[in-house]
Amino acid sequence: MMIHKKIFLLLYLFCGLSVFAQDYEILYTQGEQYFQEGRFGDAYFNYSKYLENNPDSVKAYISRGNTLIFLKKVKEALSDFDKAISLDPKNYRAYSGRGTVYTYMQNSDDALKNFNKALELNPKDVVSMNSLAVIYYGGGDTQKAIDMLNKAVKTQPDNVDTYKNRGSILLFSGDTTGALNDLNTAVELGPNRVDVYNTRGAIYKEMGKLEEAVKDYNKAIELDPYGAEAYCRLGIAYLQMGEYDNAIQFIEKGIRNDPSMESQVKQYLDEAKEKKKNK
């Protein structure tokens, strides 16, 4: 009889641990969902709770590191990626994440080393390809950046960021037609991505197609009513269209949503107010 009681107790404990393990996995899964929704504070909380009970989880350190980047806590993010690499020195995502941190820290040498290491471990890592392209472009090597993004397109033809980044570089290089083609593809692949509408709107604005730009900025606002960039871009477009009341309204709305935008758009707001006064 005692043996049966012990077996029952062991089975009870085993089942209990299994349920707890599932609960912790739910924490991680929910953290991933929060991250995708842009709820980075909630994602950070979930990943941290998960790590309290799974202190050797490489995936959780990487996920929390990526979250910390968006929370602008890059030193803490670096610590998480360092930990992930110490646990799994062959995890390409950890090197790619650490490369992103070094990019934010303006340490391009270490960023390049980490992105190249990620590609060494996984030659099909388009995230690192995109990151390298951005660094190359920032360093003045536009052709090397384009070549890397062309490689990324061949590797993964449905990656939204590749088309968005290549389109942005083409725009800054004066190729508005090529830029628009890439952003049209990005919108097709990522119809719910705020950033692609903002970027395509900027291309339309450069092409003088202000009504098309306004449509894209309004779509970005529809997708993210609490963002700031789209409101400011929309206001600047209205400024160019001579609709000064709308320009002031939307630029001020963008600044209210994110006061850090003020330094970037103040000149346009002042111009709109001045032109309204002299109208």
What are the key terms here?
single chain; 279 residues; mainly alpha
Q: Report the sheet-strand fraction.
A: under 5%
Number of strands: 0
Low confidence ranges:
15-20
Q: Between the first and last Cα atoms, what is the distance in angstroms?
A: 96 Å
Shape: globular
Range of helix content: over 70%
Order of helices and strands: HHHHHHHHHHHHHHH
Rg over CA atoms: 23 Å
Helix- and strand-based class?
mainly alpha
Mean pLDDT: 91
- Number of continuous helical runs: 15
The major β-sheet equals: none
Summary, kept brief:
The chain is mostly helical and 279 residues long. It is 81% helix and 0% strand.
Describe this structure in words.
The chain starts with a helix and ends with a helix. α8 (142-155) packs antiparallel against α9, α10 (176-189) packs antiparallel against α11 (194-206) and α11 runs parallel beside α13. The longest helix is centred in the first third of the chain and has 35 residues, at 2-36. The protein has helices at residues 2-36, 40-53, 58-70, 74-87, 92-104, 108-121, 126-138, 142-155, 160-172, 176-189, 194-206, 210-223, 229-240, 244-257, 262-277. It has 15 helices and no strands. 81% of the residues lie in helices and 0% in strands. The radius of gyration is 23 Å and the shape is globular. By secondary structure, the protein is an all-alpha fold. The model is unreliable at 15-20 (pLDDT under 50).
Topology readout:
Blueprint: H1 2-36, H2 40-53, H3 58-70, H4 74-87, H5 92-104, H6 108-121, H7 126-138, H8 142-155, H9 160-172, H10 176-189, H11 194-206, H12 210-223, H13 229-240, H14 244-257, H15 262-277
Helix pairs in contact: 1-2, 2-3, 3-4, 3-5, 4-5, 5-6, 5-7, 6-7, 7-8, 7-9, 8-9, 9-10, 9-11, 10-11, 11-12, 11-13, 12-13, 13-14, 13-15, 14-15
